[in-house]
Specification:
The structure is a single chain. By secondary structure, the chain is mainly alpha-helical. It has 17 helices and 4 strands. The longest helix is centred in the first third of the chain and has 21 residues. The relative contact order is 0.15. It is a single-pass type II membrane protein.
Amino acid sequence: MMLPRRQDYGKRRSDGVRSGSVINFRSAGSPGSVRRSSALLPSVLTFLVIVASGGLLLMIEKGMLNSVETPSPRGSARRLELIGETRKYGADGADVDSQILQEIRNRTIRTMCSQKNMPHSVWSLSPLQRKTVLQHILVNDEYRFLYCYVPKVACSNWKRVLKVLSGALESVDVNIKMDHRSDLKFLSSLKPEEIRYRLKHYFKFMFVREPMERLLSAYRNKFGEIESYQKKYGAEIVKRYRKGRAKDASVTGDDVTFGEFVRYLLDEDVERMNEHWMPIYNLCQPCAVSYNFIGSYEQLGRDSEYVLQRIGAPPFVHFPERQTWYKPVTTQTLHYYLCTLPQKLLRELLPKYILDFSLFAYPLPNTTTEHCRH
């Protein structure tokens, strides 16, 4: 098959995106969609009350959140056709609900990040904060984009895509163990002026996930399957938080409980955490970096397809299918872990991740006695 000429893709890179703002890629809906939006408004406002924190709710009530234009995506007919397929939801209004959620997230980020105490560029961050974010932003100069990877939010698959785009990997479906460092270009490897240019002119995106679900995914994967994590972190956690094991040389760290893991997190400085459980806010600094698009793990397929279309990726490049061995965190599983966790620990844990909840429009977990009874 003859591939389209590379320069054809470059024409799309500047289409339909305003530099330095988080955008909603959804185009204007039909009159019917508007009617469904109105019907959904009460539940959405309730949701907004849940996720809003501190003075943000007051700003919303005073009308300080301005409307935002929602440019429609442009690009190849092939890409738009695929995106159209991912929009074919039922008549229950789920697609409209997704649009509203995206709009809430966009406005919340802009409003909260406009506050004086929030960083407004990577250069206003502390040296440690700046080092963290620059080490998590991957660069592709050919397609002119920056991707901030977040562990446990499909970052391995996105790294596969980047390697295919750079020519280091033949296909995203190649069955090889992912090397998370080789054949990848990190923003931290560039000079300050090169960093400034790319932050200003490149398309910037990241993906987020419900904070507690991401945390549980990291716990189950690292302490249930990865021996190096069991030895490095697990053994120390057991010795520190399990009675009578402080000086036990036989501790292997392969039986860390979720409660012990949470106690460990409570004693950790968020800016020095391991990247797999560091808050998304600290990893990608969405106030210091003006991301053009923030996708959701919950809508991974659709949002990934949009990004591929937006950067002008060749039609043969697709987002990888989920691996057959992957064990997703189900709603029931998360419900079980959070409800069996001492509620005092959960109340102390949530503030460490409150910016992930509020900025990315995720409701706080419901662990009331009545809810947990079911």
